[in-house]
Design goal:
This protein is an alpha/beta fold and 383 residues long. It has 2 domains: 251 residues, Rossmann fold; 84 residues, no CATH class. Helix content is 43%, strand content 11%. Bound molecules: 2-acetamido-2-deoxy-beta-D-glucopyranose (NAG) (3 copies).
Length: 383
């Protein structure tokens, strides 16, 4: 056997022995179970909640605690990626500036670092818990956890234009009888994406708590309302929807989640260029934040079907380095606190030809067209 083939065999064997290396995780999750944000005129369950609107419940805390245990098992245990003891240089946690999101991050980190030895042993101190820093930005300037932020006026402008488009208007007209019924049953006007969303949300929260539904709110009615919510919400925010119309509004998709995508790519680029980086980024946010990103990936339907992202659902981006020094991305999703991660990398439209991991350069090239050169300048455009 010649020297070259011997070297070749050695090389092949070594790439089996020396495995691919996890380099960074960028994780986006939804807060846990909450109380409804809205009610409706004839809501029989309006007084059944003992917390204010939109508050994280103890079930919600538990859900994120379970997800934190899942993270601990994978990234502290199986992959030995981060230290289970608090290390101020490994994980950076950022949250939307909403109580339920901050509390969710706290519950999650309490589980992830439940083996931490870095804490005082003062009598009464909770065992193996330490306060973990969770960073926030004011909601109106939070372009990462608040889907482009509420200060980007162009988002509202493009959304209202989108809701005056013919296919969208026709979709509502086609469903006018059902909307009239919802209006009659609920006692408040249900006639557009916003009012559909509000009624949907109230019923969703009540169903999650097994409350007795008003007699009109049968499973069939719920399913129809749910589909209308999913379709109108996706379309309104820029995504083509088979049932409504065939065109994306790429600018809207980009304004909604391009800044978060830019942040992920920037964090991963720091790894690739060995530029000093956090190993683990956590973003504690909303269902709408997850959906906005999935709309850019064009995998809302293939990953979620007609479901909304569940409470405490996790969307994970792992950056790996293979034995030849190439970087690739694996995307995982956990639907809720009770569901293991599933591989969804090839559901991303930019990664469909890479079932074994999406090369970092291909990911970046494909999605760069969703990133605004100057986000705030674009937000200021009024034409
Ligand atoms: C994990 O952190 C603890 C506490 O700082 C430290 O004692 C330990 O050596 C660290 N383990 C590893 C593998 O770095
Ligand atoms: C609602 O019912 C389901 C099914 O019986 C149960 O698993 C769940 O824990 C209940 N949820 C609440 C909030 O009681
Ligand atoms: C992935 O990127 C490489 C170069 O970086 C390019 O040659 C190849 O065509 C890309 N593959 C796809 C499917 O876009």
């Amino acid at each position: 056997m010649g020297l070259l083939s011997t070297l070749f065999i050695l090389f092949e064997v070594s790439s089996l022995i020396f495995c691919d290396e996890l380099m960074q995780v960028n994780l986006l999750y939804r807060h846990g179970d909450r109380t409804p944000i809205y009610t409706y005129k004839d809501d029989p369950n309006v007084n059944k909640w003992d917390l204010p609107a939109g508050a994280l419940t103890t079930i919600g805390m538990e859900q994120q605690f379970l997800q934190g245990q899942r993270l601990k098992k994978r990234y502290v245990g199986q992959l030995n990626f981060i230290n289970g003891s608090y290390n101020p240089r490994e994980l950076y946690a950022r949250s939307a500036d909403t109580s339920r999101c901050i509390q969710s991050a706290g519950a999650n980190l309490a589980a992830l670092y439940s083996g931490s030895v870095v804490h005082p042993n003062t009598p009464g101190w909770p065992s193996n818990w330490m306060p973990y820093p969770i960073h926030t930005y004011p909601s109106d300037s939070d372009t990462l956890c608040e889907e482009g932020s509420s200060s980007c006026q162009r988002i509202g402008l493009l959304e209202s234009r989108r809701q005056r488009e013919t296919p969208y208007v026709q979709y509502l007209i086609k469903n006018q009888d059902f909307l009239n019924q919802l209006t009659q049953w609920s006692g408040g006007t249900v006639n557009d994406a916003g009012s559909i969303n509000r009624l949907w949300d109230t019923l969703y929260c009540q169903r999650a708590h097994n409350m007795t539904m008003p007699s009109w709110a049968t499973n069939d009615v719920w399913n129809q309302l749910n589909e209308m919510f999913i379709y109108t919400d996706d379309y309104k925010d820029g995504l083509a929807v088979q049932q409504i119309g065939p065109n994306d509004n790429k600018e809207l998709l980009s304004l909604r989640s391009g800044e978060l995508l830019k942040q992920f790519i920037s964090s991963m680029s720091d790894v690739v260029s060995n530029n000093g980086y956090w190993k683990f980024h956590v973003y504690s946010a909303h269902d709408s934040t997850i959906k906005a990103l999935m709309r850019i990936y064009h995998n809302v339907k293939s990953v979620l079907g007609t479901n909304n992202p569940g409470y405490a659902s996790h969307l994970v981006h792992e950056l790996w380095k293979d034995t030849k020094g190439n970087y690739y991305i694996q995307v995982l999703f956990s639907d809720n606190a009770y569901t293991e991660y599933r591989q969804i990398t090839s559901t991303l439209d930019g990664c469909s030809s890479f079932p074994n991991g999406c090369p970092f350069n291909n990911f970046t090239t494909y999605y760069s067209s969703y990133i605004q050169a100057d986000f705030w300048k674009q937000c200021a455009l009024t034409s």
